[in-house]
What does this fold into?
Amino acid sequence: MIEVKKKGNERIDVLVRRFNREVQQSGVLTVAKEKRFFEKDLNRGSRRKIAVRRTEINKLKRGW
It folds into this structure.
């Protein structure tokens, strides 16, 4: 769990910004977004094909 305590005369907006930074660095949001919808388990070959296709599409978009 992420916990941020107020430091002395720290303003609320600075405290919220620091909290948001901690949340981003911890990776809590990315895990929550990944687990939001159920996905069937793919075997290693299927995951690899998807990853290769994704990299090829990204290369085409970037013009490599």
Q: What stands out?
A: Residues 44-62 form the longest helix (19 residues). Residues 12-62 form one domain. The mean pLDDT is 90.
